[in-house]
């Protein structure tokens, strides 16, 4: 197994350097496909793995600018769709022995952050930090890609001994919850007996496997912009309509909303940009907002209230507003709790240290795939792979103990072994 473990680390360090954000994982997708083709696999990618209405796409300009930086030299496959933001890919590896249909999902995107320049940061010390100062694998999806590829490598090497079929899904745009819905709508999770996914870190202790993550929050992501009227702030402010004040007022109102006794709820205004100059009544503002709820009733109610605040504030400041939904994820709670108990017991027997039902306490759009498989009669499980974090997720100094990659691969392989015998 040693060769796989070493490869996981090398892969993780390579992908960290080319960190790309949601729908722009063009180089990342190309490099994943190159690796899979090297293993002799057929890869599905591009338009055929996505729905027609992907949410939260970057502008065409951003997309084509990014596409120019992508290295497409010496490729023997068509990348035109990938360069249009149809990122991610799916590979199917079928054994010749009858058995179960397994699905595994790995997310591949990074975050819009400037990775820390601290020389003590391990990626700086060892030279594998993000080469782009505006992107950073600060959630560990570099490790997820490595585990997904390592799993493919192991399956290919062991296919004679295995039974059933294996579908490995490399999903783009998890941050901002956009890719999961698109791929699920295009059938990524159809026809599976088991759906297996995981996340490294979170609050799990090093060496521990959290089995059957709970606390997936349903979420909606919104962009809100106000358009007012600019005017001279000294000479004739009465002619202006202030889009900055509308946004500031809306931000305060929005943060008073999440009060529910029936479950948990969250709201966050994460971005507010407005105005163009000191002596000008600001004519434009732009906000990024997210809502979360432990169930769809809370989420839908909260989202309706966001609409009311956006509209009401526009009315009171006499400005125009535009509210659009740019991302979405459902919650997930398994309908087969006994399956989670079974898996934890079997993993314990194999020598793993497990932690039953860890709390994710966030949103993850693999929820669409987990739910879809259960709806069609299969079983789904989400693992939390414990590791020591140098800084919290989404922090510029985020990094993790790489032993988690081995733990992850071992967990995936053991899961296949356990379920093949079931
Ligand atoms: Zn993540």
UniProtKB/TrEMBL annotation:
The keyword Metal-binding applies. One of its GO terms (molecular function) is metal ion binding. Mn(2+) binds at residues 139, 141, 175, 199, 394. GO terms for cellular component: cytoplasm. Gene3D superfamilies: Zn peptidases (3.40.630.10). Keywords: Manganese, Metal-binding. The keyword Metal-binding applies. Its cofactor is Mn(2+). The Mn(2+) ion enhances activity. One of its GO terms (biological process) is folic acid catabolic process. InterPro entries: Amidohydrolase, Bact_exopeptidase_dim_dom, Peptidase_M20, Peptidase_M20/M20A_hydrolases, Peptidase_M20_dimer. Residues 222-313 form the Peptidase M20 dimerisation domain. PANTHER family: PEPTIDASE M20 (PTHR30575), PEPTIDASE M20 DIMERISATION DOMAIN-CONTAINING PROTEIN (PTHR30575:SF3). NCBIfam families: amidohydrolases (TIGR01891). This is Aminobenzoyl-glutamate utilization protein A.
């Amino acid at each position: 197994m040693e060769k796989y473990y070493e490869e996981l680390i090398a892969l993780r360090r390579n992908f960290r350097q080319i960190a790309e954000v949601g729908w722009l994982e063009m180089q990342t997708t190309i490099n994943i496909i190159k690796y899979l083709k090297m293993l002799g696999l057929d890869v599905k990618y591009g338009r055929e793995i996505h729905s027609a209405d992907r949410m939260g796409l970057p502008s065409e300009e951003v997309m084509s600018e990014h596409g120019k930086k992508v290295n497409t030299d010496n490729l023997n496959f068509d990348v035109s769709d990938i360069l249009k933001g149809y990122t991610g890919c799916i590979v199917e590896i079928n054994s010749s022995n009858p058995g179960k249909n397994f699905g595994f999902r790995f997310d591949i995107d990074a975050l819009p952050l400037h990775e820390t320049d601290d020389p003590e940061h391990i990626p700086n010390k060892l030279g594998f930090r993000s080469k782009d100062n505006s992107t950073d694998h600060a959630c560990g999806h570099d490790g997820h890609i490595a585990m997904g590829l390592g799993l493919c490598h192991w399956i290919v090497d062991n296919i004679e001994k295995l039974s059933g079929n294996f579908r490995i899904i490399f999903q783009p745009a998890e941050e901002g919850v956009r890719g999961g819905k698109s791929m699920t709508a295009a059938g990524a999770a159809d026809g599976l007996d088991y759906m297996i996914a995981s996340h490294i870190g979170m609050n799990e202790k090093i060496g521990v496997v959290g089995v059957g993550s709970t606390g997936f929050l349903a979420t909606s992501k919104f962009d809100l912009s106000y358009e007012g009227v600019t005017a001279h702030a000294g000479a004739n402010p009465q002619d202006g309509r202030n889009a900055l004040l509308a946004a500031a007022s809306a931000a305060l109102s929005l943060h008073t909303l999440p009060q529910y006794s029936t479950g948990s709820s969250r709201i966050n205004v994460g971005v507010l940009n407005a105005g163009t100059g000191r002596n000008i009544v600001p004519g434009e503002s732009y906000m990024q907002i997210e809502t979360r709820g432990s169930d769809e009733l809370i989420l839908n109610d909260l989202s309706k209230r966001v609409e009311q605040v956006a509209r009401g504030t526009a009315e009171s400041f006499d400005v125009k507003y535009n509210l659009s939904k740019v991302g979405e994820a459902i919650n997930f709670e398994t309908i087969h709790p006994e399956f989670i108990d079974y898996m934890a017991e079997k993993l314990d027997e194999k020598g793993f240290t497990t932690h039953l039902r860890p709390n994710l306490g966030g949103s993850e759009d693999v929820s669409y795939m987990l739910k879809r498989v259960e709806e069609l009669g299969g079983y789904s499980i989400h693992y939390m792979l414990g590791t020591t974090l140098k800084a919290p997720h989404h922090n510029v100094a985020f990094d993790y103990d790489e032993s988690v990659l081995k733990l992850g691969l071992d967990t995936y392989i053991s899961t296949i072994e356990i379920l093949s015998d079931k």
